[in-house]
Write a structure and sequence with these properties.
By secondary structure, the protein is α/β, with parallel strands linked by helices. It contains 15 helices and 13 strands. The structure holds nicotinamide-adenine-dinucleotide and zinc ion.
């Protein structure tokens, strides 16, 4: 499968997507980074799978003659690990990782390899953005969310007690290497949580892709490798096209926030116990309903999105564990930072976002927001 190219202000990078491609990681890193000292950063859960992926993948076994040297034979100067989980995507972990690199005397000839989910990618990318004023890095995403979303676009950073991703940078990777085989070891809930971002990509940009996900929901749920590879590839193409057009989020990139404003409110209200992808599923349903009520999208779009998310095993109701008044409170609180109004990027149809003369978001009245959020209960 051909690599996807992402262009940005100072260059471009390739996203390689193929089952078994981890076996070619050394060559791909060499091509993108040259002869640099590599530092592998990962979390403690992914570290446990590392040998399995690199020495016992079905592809590695099938490679026959090459099997003796199969596996990532990365010559790393250091392999740094931190405890898995969003709660460790902090400045504290950033300090630890940076200090470990400094104490080993690693110079500007260093490059970082981020192996893991979105937490590793954001954190290791932020270390790369700031270490000695910036060193190159490679994204090697191992969750569905990281493959089709987080590893592309160059946004890196950490959370603070006041909110997610509040400290960070734009630092595009030198290369992204996504091996769908790694997704086979993901826990179900983590795996499914990534699917809502793919539904979002279809909704915002490609009706045919949305239809393909509908037709292939069962295959995707059973992690059929061909279906998964196509899914990651098409989603990356869509995200790449949007971020290439608008690297720093001045306009069109706002469409990638579809479902996310309400998702954010839900995540805050649930104190981040709700996985991001599940919050996005709920946010997409609520925001589609708002688009219907504002007359921006045809009736029925919310139902179609809901049916697909349900078929993919994602939640479409918040249940009683997330108090909806708190969701609204969190969103209205956020409003203070955006000129006193909540603006949403809303669909015009499946595959196309509402565009009011180049403005990709519209202000939404508080009572409509309240109804849509209450409708999730
Ligand atoms: N930078 C961006 O543009 C962007 C976009 C979307 C999300 N994000 C960020 O991504 C993060 C969420 O990423 P995530 O959902 O990948 O979470 P995550 O990185 O926490 O991974 C989820 C869990 O899966 C484990 N894991 C990872 N790969 C595995 C594998 N192949 N097999 C078994 N277990 C594996 C991890 O150790 C972790 O416990 C959030 O912090 C979010 O803010 C960033
Ligand atoms: Zn998201």
């Amino acid at each position: 499968m051909p690599a996807v190219t992402v262009r940005h202000a100072t260059g471009q990078y390739q996203v390689h997507i193929e089952p078994g491609i981890l076996l070619s990681l050394p060559e791909l890193l060499g091509g993108a980074l040259g002869r640099r000292k590599l530092v592998l950063i990962t979390d403690d859960i992914v570290a446990r799978y590392y040998d399995e992926w690199t020495h016992a993948t079905p592809n590695a076994r099938a490679l026959g003659a090459r099997s003796s040297d199969a596996g990532i034979r990365l010559r790393c100067e250091a392999r740094l690990t931190f405890p898995a989980g969003e709660e460790h995507k902090t400045r504290g972990t950033w300090v630890q990782l940076s200090d470990q690199m400094l104490s080993q005397g690693l110079d500007r000839q260093t490059a970082i390899v981020a192996l893991g989910g979105g937490v590793v990618g954001d954190l290791a990318g932020f270390v790369a953005a700031t270490y000695l004023r910036g060193v190159p890095y490679a994204q090697v995403p191992t969750t569905l969310l990281a493959m089709l979303d987080a590893s592309v676009g160059g946004k890196v950073g950490v959370d603070t007690s006041l909110g997610k991703n509040l400290i960070g940078a734009f630092h595009p990777p030198a290369v992204v290497v996504a091996d769908p085989l790694t997704l086979l070891t993901l826990p179900d809930r983590v795996y499914r949580s990534g699917l809502s971002e793919a539904v979002k990509h279809g909704l915002i940009a490609d009706a045919a892709y949305f239809g393909w996900i509908e037709l292939n929901a069962r295959k995707l749920l059973s992690r059929d490798l061909d279906a998964l590879t196509h899914l990651v590839h098409r989603s990356v193409e869509i995200k790449a096209a949007v971020v290439t057009a608008d690297e720093r989020e001045s306009g069109q990139r706002a469409i990638l926030n579809a479902g996310h404003t309400i998702a954010h409110g839900l995540e805050l209200a649930a104190q981040f116990r709700l996985p991001h992808g599940e919050a996005v599923a709920l946010g997409l349903v609520a925001e589609c309903r708002i688009a219907e009520r504002m007359g921006l999208a045809p009736e029925g779009i919310g139902g179609r999105v809901l049916d697909l998310l349900r078929a993919l095993g994602l939640p479409t109701r918040a249940g009683t564990s997330i108090p909806t008044p708190r969701v609204l409170e969190a969103m209205l609180h956020d409003k203070k930072n955006s000129d006193g109004e909540v603006r949403l990027a809303l669909p015009a149809a499946v595959g196309r976002m509402h565009d009011a003369a180049g403005r990709w978001t519209v202000p939404v009245p508080d009572d409509l927001l309240a109804d849509a959020v209450a409708g999730l209960a």
